[in-house]
């Protein structure tokens, strides 16, 4: 069976009847499409008649909004698919046009068009397929060699639960009005409205919020995207997509699903954003989680002489496959957690390193737990090079850095036994960039040379994976002698707590130490693999084992690890 990168799914079954059939329909579509799946709702359309069917408007009701939520929720089981429900033909009562716009361009022109339409004999009936292809190309820009597939009877009927034809979808959208809503109740349209969020790794719960907002808005939608200070409290903020990347993904999605709207995507720097200050906005779409924030926006508007916004609250989408320590809702936080241990960029080619040895550089801010992760990697078979121990060797009398350091800083840095007092040296360089550079210009090349000697030793011991444990890996330029940089991240507040507890420093001293190092965000930008010791030890162990297993899969056969 051919697999296509992008496809269009035309749904013709009435929504209440269609809902219980969605899981098998989605599974059938996912066998044919592996990237972008566009969905077009045209309930009641007959592809089996003599006449070529034409696109017609679909009244936007709460049943339609609930179906959109239901569909995206079901699609979350097929996370490889970028699902986009197209909204051009879904219109509110105030903008109900009998004639729809001409052919709509899509970011990923469909290579195959599919439908749930049921032929009488369940065959791939050619006239029906011809109607389907003509219908698809009359609505959307498709690939010139468009294929067509009738999903029925592949998704079958025998295994489906018995549903009443009038079975109602669970209510997922709650308008602010105290009046009880009914499924067939038309949705009101507004000229301008707003929706906000972080929109990191655009997922199906985001798409529900955005889709509901797009249905409600008739002229313009203002989309606030959290940035800067609003990101600090996020879990694993170092793994957030850059603001520009999030905006690009948002923009493509929004223009695809409803190109008739004007979109204003703005940086959200405070909890209110444009929703608190723009007098022309009429509604705000929020989730269960951000509903209180929506209420706060309305209080702020009233205090400043502006009308309240109509609030539309969307239920949180449950994540049926959430892992340990992950939220039970579909969330970007969980997606970032799942990235831990994965390869984020191609490894470096290092032909100058010892043949048969694969070298990792392990780094992270002070207190991040590098030593514990290094020990876990050692238990899995890696050879560990501790840069701190190499520093001690270099400082020792007769060591390669001993004489240069004494000449640079004077004999008053020595203990009575002639060994270097590292605390005295530390006090000399602390806060003195010139003195610090003098020290690092001596130490870093020496430690780098010792590390190379350790690599040769690792080879003689039969090791194939070597880990350089170094807090200053990137600052020292040692990333140039590793195949991959692995970084441990934790929140700065947690790092401060650990440093205070471990080293007996004051909070101010701990923060000062962290400020003298590269931030977690800066380290991640240069990293191939990211891990975190934020949770229980067994969670860290699972991350390390996952990262190690993935590493084994990408190692050349000559580098397969010997434990």
TrEMBL record:
Compartment(s): Cytoplasm; Mitochondrion matrix
Gene3D superfamilies for the chain: HUPs, P-loop containing nucleotide triphosphate hydrolases
Cytidyltransferase-like domain location: 195-338
CDD domains tied to this protein: DPCK, PPAT_CoAS
GO biological process, one term: coenzyme A biosynthetic process
GO molecular function: ATP binding; dephospho-CoA kinase activity; pantetheine-phosphate adenylyltransferase activity
Annotated metabolic or biological route of this protein: Cofactor biosynthesis; coenzyme A biosynthesis; CoA from (R)-pantothenate: step 5/5; Cofactor biosynthesis; coenzyme A biosynthesis; CoA from (R)-pantothenate: step 4/5
Superkingdom per UniProt: Eukaryota
Matches recorded under InterPro entries: Cyt_trans-like, Depp_CoAkinase, P-loop_NTPase, Rossmann-like_a/b/a_fold
Keyword Kinase among record annotations: yes
Keywords of the record: ATP-binding, Coenzyme A biosynthesis, Cytoplasm, Kinase, Mitochondrion, Multifunctional enzyme, Nucleotide-binding, Nucleotidyltransferase, Phosphoprotein, Signal, Transferase
Secretion signal, residue range per the UniProt entry: 1-19
EC number of the protein: 2.7.1.24, 2.7.7.3
The keyword Transferase appears for this protein: yes
GO cellular component, as recorded: mitochondrial matrix; mitochondrial outer membrane
Xref: HAMAP family: Dephospho_CoA_kinase
Quaternary structure and partners: Monomer.
Family: In the central section; belongs to the eukaryotic CoaD family.
Role, per record: Bifunctional enzyme that catalyzes the fourth and fifth sequential steps of CoA biosynthetic pathway. The fourth reaction is catalyzed by the phosphopantetheine adenylyltransferase, coded by the coaD domain; the fifth reaction is catalyzed by the dephospho-CoA kinase, coded by the coaE domain. May act as a point of CoA biosynthesis regulation.
Protein name as it appears in the record: Bifunctional coenzyme A synthase
């Amino acid at each position: 069976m051919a697999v296509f990168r992008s496809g269009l799914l035309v749904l013709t079954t009435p929504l209440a009847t269609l809902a219980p059939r969605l899981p098998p329909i989605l599974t059938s579509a996912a066998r044919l499409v592996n990237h972008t799946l566009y969905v077009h709702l045209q309930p009641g359309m007959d592809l089996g008649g003599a006449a070529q069917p034409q696109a017609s408007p679909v009244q936007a009701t709460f049943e339609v909004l609930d179906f959109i939520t239901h569909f995206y929720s079901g699609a979350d089981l097929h996370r490889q698919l970028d699902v986009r429900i197209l909204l051009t033909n879904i219109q509110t009562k105030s903008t109900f046009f009998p004639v729809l716009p001409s052919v709509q361009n899509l970011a990923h022109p469909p290579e195959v068009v599919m439908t749930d339409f049921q032929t009488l004999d369940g065959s791939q009936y050619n006239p029906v397929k011809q109607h389907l292809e003509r219908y698809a190309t009359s609505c959307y820009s498709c690939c010139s060699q468009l294929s067509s597939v009738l999903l029925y009877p592949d998704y079958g009927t025998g295994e489906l639960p018995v549903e009443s034809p009038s079975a109602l979808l669970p209510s997922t959208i709650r308008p602010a009005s105290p009046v009880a809503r009914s499924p067939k109740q038309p949705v009101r349209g507004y000229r301008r409205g707003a929706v906000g969020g972080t929109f990191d790794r655009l997922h199906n719960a985001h798409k529900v919020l955005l889709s509901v907002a797009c249905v409600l808005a008739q002229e313009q939608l203002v989309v606030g995207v959290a940035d800067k200070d609003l990101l600090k409290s996020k879990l694993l903020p170092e793994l957030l997509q850059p603001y520009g990347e999030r905006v690009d993904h948002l923009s493509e999605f929004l223009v695809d699903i409803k190109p008739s709207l004007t979109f204003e995507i703005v940086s959200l720097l405070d909890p209110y954003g444009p929703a608190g200050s723009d007098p022309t906005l009429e509604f705000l779409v929020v989730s269960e989680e951000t509903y209180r924030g929506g209420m706060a926006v309305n209080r702020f508007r009233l205090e400043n002489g502006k009308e309240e916004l109509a609030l539309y609250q969307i239920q949180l989408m449950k994540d049926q496959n959430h892992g340990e320590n992950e939220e039970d809702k579909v969330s970007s936080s969980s997606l970032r957690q799942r990235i831990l241990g994965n390869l984020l960029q191609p490894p470096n080619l290092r032909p100058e390193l010892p043949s048969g040895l694969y070298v990792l550089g392990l780094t992270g801010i002070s207190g991040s737990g590098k030593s514990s992760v290094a020990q876990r990697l050692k238990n899995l078979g890696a050879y560990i090079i501790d840069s701190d121990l190499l520093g001690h060797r270099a400082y020792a009398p007769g060591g390669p850095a001993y004489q240069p350091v004494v000449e640079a800083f004077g004999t008053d840095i020595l203990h009575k036994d002639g060994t270097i007092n590292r605390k005295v040296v530390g006090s000399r360089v602390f806060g003195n960039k010139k003195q610090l550079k003098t020290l690092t210009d001596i130490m870093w090349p020496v430690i780098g040379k010792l590390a190379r000697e350790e690599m040769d030793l690792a080879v003689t011991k039969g090791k194939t994976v070597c880990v350089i444990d170094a807090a200053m890996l990137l600052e020292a330029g040692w990333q140039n002698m590793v195949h991959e940089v692995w970084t441990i991240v934790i929140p700065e507040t947690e790092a401060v707590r650990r440093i205070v507890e471990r080293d007996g420093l004051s909070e101010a001293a701990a923060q000062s130490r962290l400020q003298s190092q590269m931030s977690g965000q800066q380290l991640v930008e240069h990293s191939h693999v990211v891990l975190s010791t934020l949770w229980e030890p067994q969670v860290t162990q699972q991350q390390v084992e996952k990262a190690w297993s993935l590493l084994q899969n990408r190692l050349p056969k000559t580098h397969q690890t010997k434990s």
